[in-house]
Task: structure prediction
Amino acid sequence: MTHTTNGTSTAQPRTITVLGSTGSIGVQTMEVIARRADEFSLGWLTVNTRYDLLDAQLRRYAHIFQPKGVVLADETAYKEFKRVSAFKGEVLCGDEGVCAAAADSADIIMSALVGFSGVLPNYAAIQKKTTIALANKETLVSAGCVIMPEAAKHGVEILPVDSEHSAIQQCLVGEFASEIEKLILTASGGPFREWSLERLHDVTPVQALKHPNWSMGNKITIDSATLMNKGFEVIEAYWLFGVPAEKIEVVVHPQSIIHSMVQFCDGSVKAQLGLPDMKIPISYALSVPHRFPNDDTRMDICALQNLSFFSPDLSRFPCLRLAFEAMKQGGTAPAVVNAANEIAVSKFLQGIIGFLGIPSMIETCLERIPFIATPTLNDIVAVDKETRALAISLADAFAQSVVV
Result:
C-alpha cells in the first residue's frame, strides 16, 4: 500500500481476514479498519462460540463492508447462527473451516485467536504466502521452531501486534540486528505484583480477572496475573527478532506507559511510549512502515510524574521462570508449557485448582511429557494433545483429593 503525506492510501483496498473477530483484539481491529474503510475490504471473520456477537458485529458494520464469509468453530454456535442470522455470505463450521478461511485469498490476516487454536490456521495462511498480523502469541510459543522457518521459506512477513513486540519493532527501525545488546520487555506486574507468596495461595478468579491497566479476555488476563503472558512474550520475541535467550530481559513497569525497550552495543536505549491502548499496535501492524493518523486521546508527557521499574520476583511468579527454562530447552518444551497452561488456567477459572496450582501443574507436565528436540508440526500437535490429557487428569485427581 502507498500513502500520501497525510496518511491516506492511494492503492486498491487490501483484503483482511480477522481470525477471532469478536475477541478483544478482533473487536478493536474492526474499529480500526472501519475508520479506513476505503483501504480495506473484508475476507473472512471467524469466531469460536459467540454467534450472537458475530451477528451483532455483522449488523454493526453492514453499512461499511460485508465479509466474504464467516466461520464458527463450535458446531452448536454454527447451527444457532444459521438459525438467527440474516447473513447471506458463506458460513463454515469447525476448525477445518477456520483453516479454510485462513488459506483463502487475502492480503493480510489478523490472527487474534486464543491459544493453540491459532497454530494450524496460521500455518495454512503461510502456505498461501499471506502476511500475518500476529496477536496469537501461542502460535510462536508452541510452534515457533516450525512456523518461523516455514514463513521464511514462503517469504511471509509476520507482523507483531502485542504492544511489547510492536514497541520493539518500532525501536528497531533503522537499526542493525548485530548491534542489539538486549531486548527489554516491560510487564505491568498484574494485580498481585505486591502480594506476598502466602496471599497468592488464596487468590480467587474474580480477583485475578481485575487487571489494573488493560482490558482483555479472561485467559490472557489470568496469564498476566501469573506473568505467564510475559513468559510467552519472551518466547515470542526470541522467534520474532532472532535474539538469543540471554539477551531478553523482563522488567516490571506498573504504569504500562513504556511498552518495551531496546539496548544497543553503545549503551544507548530506545523506548516506545504510549497510552495502554491496543488500537495503536493494531494500527501500526496494518500500516507499517507508515502510521494511520487518528484523533484518539494523546498522552500527556507532563502528567507522567512517576515511571518505576523493578525486577520480577520469580519465587512468587514461577510461570515466568518456567517460560524462560522452556525457551532455553527448545524443542517441544514450550508447547508443553502452553498446553498445560491453557488447561491450568481453565481449571483455575472453574475453581478446581488454586492460583499457585497453575505453575505447579505446568512444571509437572514438563517433567512427565517426553521431550522432542527437533519436532515436526505433527509432533507439536501430538504433544499438545498429550499434555492436555495429562493436565486434565492432574486437575481431576486434585479435585477428587479435595472432595475426599
